[in-house]
Design brief:
Elements (H helix, E strand, L loop, with lengths): L2 H17 L3 E7 L18 E6 L1 H7 L3 H6 L3 H5 L5 H14 L3 E9 L2 E13 L5 E9 L1 H52 L5 H32 L8 E4 L1 H17 L3 E5 L5 E4 L1 H17 L6 E8 L3 E8 L6 H4 L11 E2 L5 E2 L2 H12 L4 E6 L3 E9 L3
Parallel strand pairs: 7-9
Antiparallel strand pairs: 1-2, 1-5, 3-4, 4-5, 6-8, 9-10, 10-14, 11-12, 13-14
Helix pairs in contact: 6-7, 8-9, 9-11
Length: about 375
């Protein structure tokens, strides 16, 4: 083959290499220094020379062709500090056993971290040197996706664990009132002819309270499930906050009357909120119901609203038994849901408070609690005033 044909063939291979989306390179690693790890970390004395690299190689690594051919060790300076030791170790192992070099690591290029994947295969020369021919690819986007998948998987794993724990608690709390209902109904069926009206009324009241407890819990469970499945509509509109207050009074007035508890409102008439009516009603219902539960007979519950230019802060306060700091720190944690008993032995699981947190945050607001044992509790949350 004459020189012209050789040049044409070389140009053909060069053009083909430059047309590829991956970086292509060919190195000669010198036998006498190939197993010295420090050489693979050096900035000046690389244990190899470069015989070929296509244009994409230099584009990916942002290297100057002439500078790199003159001193291939400048590539080592680009490797992320925490990844350098592994880069050197795998190079030494690959040259020791003449097995394919496969490594992916981080490079710090123009203050950005770039993930690079190297793959090359060896060919031993007569003098012991090794020719390495390989490819390199920028896998930064793939790594970002992998990291997102890992994070999402971890979040899903935690969510599933939390839900399993949560549902086991709810199953227990559903079973308890049903046991009470079934027990008292069985007692009444077997002794109805022997009980007077006062005793029948007493036992029916117990059954009625347990039934209401189960119903409210089931209602909250269904709301929580619909919210987590994305099937609960979120349709915020602008309306007067007093509408939700009136709704809560209508639903809970009997509960409050049973304990001679007064529910007051302060500055709610002229407050406008931008919220989903059903969600806001649920938030208020749960907070006021909770306040009734933990307030002694003859107590006072106050709903108050304050607004500024961008948000409304709503508070539900009571003069009840208060919450200990230990319990207060767990109120909004799904893994810490537990049964509680009110001042009249009312049952609860804390699911309502979790719903409040979820619905408030759905609106872009925040919810928090302030309490002192024996003096009462204040739940506060924020809602947007306007869209």
């Amino acid at each position: 083959m004459n020189n012209e044909a050789l040049y044409l063939e070389r140009d053909l291979y060069t053009d083909l290499a430059n047309a590829l989306p991956s970086g292509i390179y060919r190195l000669r690693v010198y036998h006498e220094v190939s197993l010295i790890e420090d050489k693979w970390l050096s900035s000046e004395n690389a244990p190899y020379s470069v015989e070929f690299a296509n244009e994409r190689f230099f584009e990916i690594l942002h290297l100057d062709r002439n500078a790199y051919f003159k001193n291939p060790a400048i590539l080592h300076d680009l490797i992320y500090e925490a990844d350098k030791a592994e880069f050197a170790r795998i190079n030494v192992e690959s040259n020791l056993h003449t097995t394919p070099f496969i490594w992916e690591g981080r490079f710090l290029i123009d203050n950005d971290i770039i993930w690079i994947n190297f793959k090359s295969i060896p060919r031993i020369m007569g003098n012991g040197d090794v020719i390495w021919t390989g490819t390199l690819e920028d896998i930064t986007e793939r790594k970002k996706i992998e990291e997102q998948i890992i994070l999402k998987n971890a979040e899903l794993q935690k969510l599933n664990t939390d839900k399993d724990h949560f549902m086991s608690i709810l199953a227990h709390d559903l079973k308890s009132p049903f046991n009470s209902i079934l027990g008292f109904l069985d007692l009444m069926v077997n002794n109805l002819r022997y009980f007077d009206l006062n005793e029948i009324e007493r036992q029916l009241t117990i059954v009625n309270n347990a039934t209401n407890s189960v119903y409210n819990l089931l209602e909250d469970i269904l709301l929580w499930a619909r919210s987590h499945s994305g099937k609960l509509p979120f349709e915020p509109t602008e309306f007067n906050f007093k509408i939700s207050c009136d709704n809560v009074f209508e639903i809970l007035k009997q509960n409050a009357n049973n304990k001679n508890i007064i529910i007051n409102t302060i500055e709610v008439e002229n407050i406008t909120v931008f919220a989903d009516v059903n969600m806001l009603n649920t938030i208020l219902r749960n907070l006021v119901s909770n306040a009734i539960k933990f307030t002694n007979k003859g107590g006072i519950i106050t709903i108050k609203a304050q607004q500024n230019n961008s948000k409304v802060t709503i508070s539900v306060s009571d003069d009840g038994i208060g919450i200990s700091p230990q319990i207060m720190s767990k109120l909004f944690d799904i893994t810490q849901v537990y049964s509680t008993t009110g001042t009249a032995n009312e049952k609860g699981t804390g699911l309502g408070i979790l719903l409040c947190k979820e619905f408030v945050e759905k609106h872009g607001g925040k919810i928090w609690v302030e309490s002192e044992l024996g003096k009462g509790t204040i739940f506060r949350f924020t809602l947007p005033k306007l869209a």
